[in-house]
UniProtKB/TrEMBL annotation:
Enzyme Commission no: 2.7.13.3
Sequence ranges assigned to domain PAC in this UniProt record: 207-265
Record GO cellular component, one term: plasma membrane
Enzyme type, top EC level: transferase
Annotated protein name in UniProt: histidine kinase
Source organism of the structure: Azospirillum lipoferum (strain 4B)
NCBIfam families: sensory_box
Domain named PAS: residues: 132-205
Pfam families: HATPase_c (PF02518), HisKA (PF00512), PAS_4 (PF08448), Response_reg (PF00072)
Origin superkingdom: Bacteria
Catalytic activity: ATP + protein L-histidine = ADP + protein N-phospho-L-histidine
Keywords recorded for this protein, A-Z: Kinase, Phosphoprotein, Plasmid, Transferase
PANTHER family tied to this protein: OSMOSENSING HISTIDINE PROTEIN KINASE SLN1, TWO-COMPONENT HISTIDINE PROTEIN KINASE
């Protein structure tokens, strides 16, 4: 049993007391008693009872029916009428106030108990229903889709705010109109009229057709305009399995399409930027690698001109210098080809390479530069070390870049010594090449940054040497690292996988 707080409105004081005792026995609490309509309305407002037992005939101007109407309108408190006479006219007037029950006087306690319980249950279930309706209204108001409910004849019953905005109709104007008048759908491409989607559902009963794409024409818009929408429609079926209406839900695809288009464009832009960056890096790489042979060509061509300007030029000497020019020009061509291959991430011309011999050859290429920079070169090159299968030109560029960086790190005239040491050592399955210098060294924080393309601390540096070097090593399946040297300078070291036995 539900225990309730009850207000008694009864002009017969003896009856009122009697009811009060009965209610207390049932476990209810009587929060107030009145014999007069106006006072009853006031007490209902101040005590907010769960139920009012209301006599129809009362003292004063206002009868019980009028008092019940006011209480219902302002508070939604359930009212049970108590009456000694129930002619049709009175019952009809009382019914308009939607009472929760009648008790015909004189009544017995069990009767009263039943009517009160029924009234309290009904009120609780009405409150639950109202709550669920509020939830449902709040949901419909906050979703981004348009929602239109239709009756079984396909006329509009309800539409949410989004549906109002998209169709150009207010819910009030649309109420009772055929759906096809309010929701005008045409074919997305051909602009031909489409059948009202809910009519299809109503005709076919519980069957829900698959979603469809259409163009919704808001009120007063020409057939060429409209919003592209996705429509979904289902039937509403009652407890007895009968069709009581349909619900049409539609979402605006314009925004979704705009987002998809923006995403596609952003991806294309990104790919374009990626290509530009790659081309920029490629151009920088070509400039970087060709610079060294070009400088050598210019120097040798100068020497050659000097020889030729002698009264009796020595053809033998001149020939040697011209041969060097030819060699450097060929090397520049090879370098360009190898960079192109590097950009495509394939070794240009794979073959068997003896790393110790390659280091010696590379040092020979820059002997003049090393002498000019007053660098003392030490080598510890393991003879007969295992051979690497790879691109000779690329591997030579790698060693050359490390040597040139070492020379540049020791450019400071204040340095007490300029020592470059290169070691090759074969290990189980690997060959290790170390390039050590006694230069300015690398700050711990920069150890990763120096390998990034275009990172440089030199006024005329391109910042490409190490990035190209790392690409070359990785393409050959190896690793290139930098560590601080002892007591000063830096150590660059790479390992490459080797093929047992060489060629
Ligand atoms: N042996 C080294 N000792 C000290 N710092 C070094 C050494 N090698 C490289 N670095 C640092 O790493 C940076 C990047 O080297 P990287 O070879 O990639 O470019 P760069 O030498 O500056 O220019 P370039 O593209 O002309 O070679 C250098 O600017 C320098 O700061
Ligand atoms: Mg460099």
């Amino acid at each position: 049993m539900i225990a309730a707080r009850i207000l008694i409105v009864e002009d017969d004081r003896i009856v009122a007391r009697d009811i009060q005792h009965q209610l207390s026995r049932m476990g209810h609490v009587v929060v107030g008693m009145s014999a007069n309509g106006e006072e009853a309305v006031r007490l209902a407002g101040s005590h907010r009872p769960d139920l009012v037992l209301m006599d129809i005939r009362l003292e004063g101007e206002m009868d019980g029916i009028e008092a019940a109407r006011r209480i219902r309108d302002s508070q939604r408190i359930p009212v049970v009428f108590l009456t000694a006479y129930a002619n049709d006219e009175v019952v009809q007037r009382a019914s308009l106030t939607e009472p929760f029950g009648y008790l015909l006087k004189p009544f017995e306690e069990p009767q009263m108990r039943t009517v009160i319980q029924m009234a309290l249950y009904k009120h609780a279930s009405d409150a639950r229903l109202r709550m669920s309706e509020r939830r449902y209204a709040a949901t419909l108001a906050s979703i981004r889709d348009g929602v239109i409910l239709c009756d079984p004849q396909g006329r509009v019953d309800f539409m949410n705010r989004v549906a109002e905005t998209m169709t150009g109709w207010t819910a009030m104007e649309a109420a009772g109109q055929p759906l096809a008048t309010v929701f005008v759908a045409v074919d997305e491409e051909t602009h031909e009229s489409l059948e009202d989607f809910s009519a299809l559902v109503l005709r076919s009963g519980a069957f829900a057709p698959p979603d469809r794409l259409s163009r919704l024409l808001p009120r007063g818009e020409p057939a060429s305009a409209g919003i592209v929408v996705e429509e979904r429609c289902s039937a509403i079926i009652d407890d007895r399995g009968e069709l009581v209406g349909s619900i049409l839900v539609f979402s605006d695809l314009t925004q979704r399409r705009q987002i998809a288009e923006a995403l596609r464009k952003a991806q294309a832009d990104l790919a374009h930027i990626g290509r530009l960056t790659m081309m920029g890096e490629l151009a920088a790489a070509v400039a970087h690698e060709v610079n060294q042979p070009l400088m050598a060509i210019v120097t040798n061509a100068g020497t050659c001109l000097q020889h030729l300007s002698q009264p009796h030029p020595d053809p033998g000497k001149t020939r040697v210098v011209v041969e060097r020019i030819v060699r450097d020009a060929q090397r520049a061509g090879d370098v360009v080809r190898s960079i192109h291959a590097l950009a495509r991430r394939t070794p240009a011309d794979p073959g068997w390479v003896d790393m110790s011999a390659l280091v010696a050859d590379t040092l020979a290429l820059v002997r003049a530069e090393l002498r000019r920079a007053r660098v003392v070169v030490e080598t510890d090159l393991q003879a007969g070390s295992p051979w690497v299968h790879g691109d000779r030109v690329q591997l030579q560029q790698l060693v050359l870049n490390l040597v040139m960086n070492a020379v540049e790190a020791m450019a400071d005239p204040e340095l007490p010594e300029r020592r470059l040491r290169i070691v090759t050592a074969g290990e189980e399955g690997w060959i290790r090449v170390r390039v050590e210098d006694s230069g300015v060294g690398i700050a711990d924080a920069d150890v990763d940054a120096i390998f990034r393309a275009l990172y440089t601390t030199k006024p005329d540096g391109l910042g490409m040497g190490l990035s190209i070097g790392r690409s070359i090593v990785e393409l050959h399946g190896g690793r290139l690292t930098a560590t601080p040297g002892t007591p000063c300078g830096s150590v660059f070291e790479f390992v490459l996988p080797v093929s047992a036995g060489g060629v």
